[in-house]
Amino acid sequence: ARGDVVVAGAAWRSGRQVEAVVTLLPGVRVKPRARVRVHHGTAEVMARISLEVAAEDAAPSAARIVLESPLVARAGDRFVLRSYSPVTTIGGGVIVDPWGDDVPAARRRRLGPAAAALHDDAARVVRLVVARGPAGLDRAALEVAAGLDVTRLTAVLARAAQHGLVESDGWLVAEAEVTAAATRLQAALAHHHQMRPLEPGMPAQAWRSAARAPRAALAELAAQRLMEAGRVVREGGLVRLPDWDPGAGAAARQAQERVLDRLRQAGAEPPSVGELTQALPGVEVGATLRLLARSGVVVAVAADRYYERDALEQERRRLVGVLEELGAATPSDFRDRMKRSRKWLIPLLEWADREGVTVREGGRRKLKGGAGT
N or C, which end of the chain is more exposed by having fewer CB within 10 Å? Predict the structure, then answer.
């Protein structure tokens, strides 16, 4: 529908806007947004042209050409300019970026002189990649856009790092974009630690999304760079700053003491997470319990039920004692002998199954293996 052409596996895209270097004939002046005719090969396309600076006689000037219909071109292609009416030749030029639609105006102003890209392969490649910002450019598309054959492009990319570019699996991006993404990732991690002082780290997937990268490869490059430099540590599915110590602050320690005191008072009938949250306003109960569980002070018997370690051990011993007496027991047997309601008993029995203390056979449980006191 766009009139795209596929060349060497890459789309030779048609564009509506192109960046170019234009040279006007002596004595010719062009008003801003003047309507002109662009002759490229056998094609004639109406367009409006804006010169970045007023072109002097026979002096090249950077220009942005907004086409009224698509033009299939690539960097290095030459074209002729004719006035709209009367139809006379007013100059010509060379295309620097055939896909100017992709480049925001703010970014174009930071690209530097366009003329440098006319006769220097490296300057042309760098300009095309930098113009795409964090989106970068695939190598196959770059070959088409830059108008370079494989040999010339390979020679440039062999020194990609020297030109301020980074390549990853055939995709190129400016080094500055990787640095910026890494800065965003480190800032996001510091913010996460600040907002969640009891958590051991930030989920790696959520952390990578903080790079705000249009390509996953950019986030991966930035993340790898931070980890290789030792500025970020990954442990399993979490990432953290190297010196991060969750729960080290005075407020965090006080919260742990308050939660642990409640659990010790409750003993074998601990309150749920929701009940603790109501009883301890201002305390991040869930995060505090997870922190205590990581240190082994409390044990998660169910998703919403934590036991103080010693209280749980006493319950385990009582449970084992019932089975040593009866050989096998139903929940009703445990309830009668342990004097616990189902609210605490069922999560406890399911925990014992998971931990390999008991094995369930139908509606009864037995000791598993050598489990005992």
Answer: N
How many residues in total does the chain contain? Answer: 373
The contacts found for 231-239 with CB under 8 angstroms, 24 or more apart, are 231/186, 232/185, 232/186, 232/189, 234/204, 235/200, 235/201, 237/203, 237/204, 237/205, 238/200, 238/201, 238/202, 238/203, 238/204, 239/189, 239/201, 239/202, 239/204, 239/207
Short-list 290, 308, 307, CA closest to 347? 307
258-306 pLDDT, tens digit each: 999 999 999 999 999 999 999 999 888 998 999 899 889 999 999 999 9
Closest CA to 193 of 239, 234, 255, 250: 239
Torsion of CA 312, 316, 319, 325, to 10 degrees: -150
pLDDT in tens, 334-368: 999 999 999 999 999 999 999 999 999 988 999 98
- Position of tokens 């801003």? 32
Closest CA to 56 of 19, 29, 92: 29
CA distance 242 to 191: 14
Q: Is 116 helix (H, G, I), strand (E, B) or coil?
A: helix
| Global confidence as pTM | 0.70
Alpha helices (H) along the chain: 105-108, 121-131, 139-146, 150-157, 175-195, 204-209, 216-228, 250-266, 273-279, 285-294, 309-326, 331-338, 342-354
Say which residue the tokens 């030459």 belong to: 78
* Helices 250-266 + 309-326 axis angle, to 10: 30
